[in-house]
Amino acid sequence: MKPGFEAVIGLEIHVQLLTQSKMFCGCRNVYGADPNTHTCPVCLGLPGALPVLNQEAVRMALKLGLALEARIQPKSVFYRKQYFYPDLPKGYQITQGPVAVVEDGHLSITGDPEVRGSAAGLSIRIERAHLEEDAGKSNHELSDKATYVDLNRAGVPLLEIVGGPDLRSANEAYGYLKALHRLVVFLGICDGNMEEGSFRCDANVSVRRTGDASFGTRVEVKNLNSFRNVKLAIEHETARHIALLEKGEAFTQETRGWDADLGETKPQRSKEAAMDYRFFPEPDLPALTITKEEIEAVRSIMPELPEQRRERLVGEYGLTDYEAGMLLQSRAFADFFEAVAKASNGKQAANWMLGEVSRTLNETGKTIETLGLDAGRLAELIQLVEAKTLNLNTAKEVVFPALLKGEGTPRQVVDQQGLAQVSDRGAIEALVREVIRTHPGQLAQLQAGNEKLKGFFVGQVMKAGKGKVNPQLVNEILEATFAQ
Ligand code: ADP
Ligand code: MG
Ligand code: ZN
To answer: For the chain, what is the domain count?
Structure first.
């Protein structure tokens, strides 16, 4: 950030809820079905059709509210937000009015040391999270003569989460987005798929001079469909604001779209031309009332939250904060780690998960669920290494790939391929003698004081032992031999 300026950012996030059916009708809530195969009179807005609120969506909203330590409003009312668009067959969107089911929560993130002076923890306010329905989807690409409309998404339940203007850099916005994403996925209320649009983000950005009490004019940036684009767009937008402020140019509050190809934002519509949505309470739905009993019922089924789990992983398995954070990249990944750790050793399990397993996931583009690796087998592999039956290199280079190919248990692979580590002192001593005998030149150099050749001899002995000899013993025996 340029000295003398401060960015102010607030994110609005739309989360598609993982309910079985849509928000106000019984149509299935699925992504990727044939166009217009999941529609009915209610989500098509046919005359006389009546909406019925999906209670599962309400429970999901309560889950988020509890996780954000927010106030759950005992009574909130649905409104009609009216506008015309081809993918909105009813002519209005049902959303919540001035009172949202979830209000005044907060989410903890790490501060950006570049703008805060330290990486201390911050509490970012969540102004509200309200329930609403999604619109359908317009496809402009299928034809250059027409726009096609798919109404499968019309009426899909959304939770709009409005964050306070508390973020001060693109990095902080990124951290907040990651934390919220992880939270909704851990809660099991959203699949978090940004490419498919189940987790969408709009960024409100303004810049003011350091020390100013009031905020600068804000711009709302849309069309941010990845974590990376959110960060890039905010960086671009703050720089643009600073340049305008330095030139003394006035600018108006407006909505802009991020163009990922050009790496810049472009005007979409300005607030002066903003539509009058003619908000009014939805006459076909009763107010949403939440009782204490309903809140307690949800509280009793709350899963362990990412932050709580991070602390537990650190304490229970002796991990660093960083390792625990990396293991929490998804609930399934953390579950897998814990299954391995419980059956072997926490620290080694973490090393494998963040080493070989992560590397394989990156290379294959798979997830821990689709990798086809069995936690029990990875634990057995770790135990074979711990018991010195197998050396670590052979475990990584031969046995682990064999496990991925489904070639049996680690023990079977070791037995079939004769990989068991040689820890027989006599056998290793014989190898050492042979290697020394065949490398007199290197031995002379070593004896003349070239210590680097120790590594050479270790390598030669390992090679002579076909990688199966116990490396600690090799070191020990070589040291003893050279010391003579
Ligand atoms: P609207 O309904 O027009 O989108 P809101 O008051 O609900 O307006 O604000 C929406 C978002 O804008 C919130 O996430 C809030 O944190 C953010 N916001 C409000 N003022 C500013 C500002 N000056 N700079 C950056 N973000 C802001
Ligand atoms: Mg808005
Ligand atoms: Zn329907």
So the answer is: 3
